[in-house]
Fold this protein.
Amino acid sequence: DIVMTQSPRSLPVTPGEPASISCRSSQSLLHSNGYNYLDWYLQKPGKSPQLLIYLGSNRASGVPDRFSGTGSGTDFTLRISRVEAEDVGIYYCMQALQTPLTFGPGTKVDIK
Amino acid sequence: QVQLQQWGAGLVKPSETLSLTCAVSGGSFTGYYWTWIRQTPGRGLQWIGEMNRSGISSYNPSLKSRGTISVDSSKNQFSLKLSSVTAADTAVYYCARRTRLDMPWGVCWYFDLWGRGTLVTVSS
């Protein structure tokens, strides 16, 4: 199985400030087609996860442009350019290259 | 608006079979993978398995063949059965839809719709 790790595990943030979460995979997620099969999900408190980013850098429909995903191979980053109060929750990266699909342990983002 | 509504027993005895069902309302049942994912405080999110309308399925080997997903196209429903449960199977179980997107150089699949989750506790 592909093992996903994330850092930091906890991230207190100040509204209006940027934030960054790192995700690493135990194997390259770069497919021969040139796409990185890495997704980002946000689980807001008491809710189900929701898709933020797919294929490493593509924002899902309705996701604000303050969210961006970068990276390739085994190293990926999710950035929030200016954190808003509604962004609190747990952020998960997930590899979609092969089954079993595997998730990172999550990064809990809350307001300082 | 497409929704996933899930239900099932919230308390299951050890060694028995966990059973959950998810209904798709307001949308098509064709062209997706219908998935079960569970979440525990200790293990986080774990993909259990998935099946499409044609019956093509895939499961997490860590379940050691205890899981079975079935699809009932006539009812727009899919189900999960997990046999021989233990306390380690206590979790919030989510049903989810995995949607295909055709990109210029390939295909990707992502979870774009989730159920609200069902807490299943394994206890005598």
